[in-house]
Amino acid sequence: MNHGGSDTELVEDNRRHWDERVPLHTASSFYDLDGFRAGDEALDRFQLDELGDVTDLDLAHLQCHIGLDTLGWARHGARVAGLDFSAPAIRTATDLAVDTGLDQRSRFVAADVYDAVEELGAGAFDVVYTGSGALMWLPDIDRWARTVAGLLRPGGRLYLAEFHPLTDVLDDEHGATVARDYFTRDARTYDAPGSYADWEAATTYNTATEWHHTLGDVISAIAAVGLRIEFVREHDTIPFQRYAALTVDDAHFRYPDRAARLPLMYSLAASAPAR
């Protein structure tokens, strides 16, 4: 379903949607905050391997939600700043930092992602990180790329681990046939009761809007702001059951038939020019 509202109105609907889901996510086994407090790893192995050692690096996490991944990087030695448009999410992240003793290595700011340079500091970061399920909530991918470039120090890196845009257009049951136009750039507004962390939860603010950015859109936006693409890698697992046909494998989901796979996630690194 397409919506006639302005981007500002649609983003505000999304904010209400996410604000309501913060307590659901905080209490869920999906996020397992108790496990994280006890020392469990929050980040995928491939992300740790690809980004490498972050000890004493300044890392900005855009669209950080409740701060689990942000604090995961802090636990690996980074000084982190998390930013999200949901004030309840930022309060949860701040509390989690205190609970885990990571508050001296972290700060969290409630703000729109496009205001990140003003809120977090121009050229203040060695790494800008964006994790799973973030870019589809942004109406303007080119403005996002300019924001990333504005945050990075000379020689700094963007590291992105994201759902593959192909997952936006495949059928929800099997993830095997094309159900929507891959090349459309129209906003898609839909009704989404509950949450991926608890499908049975009773919720009120169920209207959500996503913007589809193709892999080419994302790579081109990053290149256009002068960042050098280091790699783009595609992955056959995803951290939630995007399609009913996927099967769980070591806390991740994948296609059951290894001979008929499609990409479910991708990761990308790009670096800013050194002075």
UniProtKB/TrEMBL annotation:
GO BP term, example: methylation
CDD domains: AdoMet_MTases
Keyword Methyltransferase: yes
Keywords, comma-separated and alphabetical: Methyltransferase, Transferase
InterPro entries in UniProt: Methyltransf_11, SAM-dependent_MTases_sf
Domain of life of the source: Bacteria
Pfam families with a match to the protein in the record: Methyltransf_11
Methyltransferase type domain ranges (all copies): 64-160
GO molecular function, one term: S-adenosylmethionine-dependent methyltransferase activity
Name of this chain's protein: SAM-dependent methyltransferase
